[in-house]
Design a protein that fits this description.
By secondary structure, this protein is an alpha/beta fold. 45% of the residues lie in helices and 18% in strands. The longest helix is centred in the first third of the chain and has 17 residues.
Length: 94
């Protein structure tokens, strides 16, 4: 399978999941929890928060901290917020 075919299959799978998201939410996740992080204080998490809310996140943890640092308070708090079948949603991994 070529890289293009893999990408097209992945996109098609995502579209199918999104079309059935209400069914998926009822059957799988009790709560969607979002995590929004930007690296610098002058950056804004609003685009992340907007996307996470659109995805159905009811709780969103956000912080301004470098991804290379381990002392991220909200990231460490995240596991404490999770219950069985909850799902963590991250808008961007960069």
């Amino acid at each position: 399978m070529t890289e293009r075919n893999k990408l097209e299959c992945g996109v098609a799978h995502c579209i199918t999941l999104l079309q059935n998201i209400d069914e998926w939410r009822q059957g799988c996740a009790t709560l969607l929890i979002g995590y929004a992080r930007v690296s610098r204080q002058e950056q804004d998490t609003q685009a992340h928060i907007t996307a996470l809310k659109a995805a159905g996140c009811k709780k969103i943890l956000q912080e301004k901290a470098s991804g290379g640092r381990w002392d991220r308070l909200e990231l460490h708090r995240l596991p404490e917020q999770l219950r069985h079948n909850d799902t963590v949603v991250v808008w961007k991994l960069d």
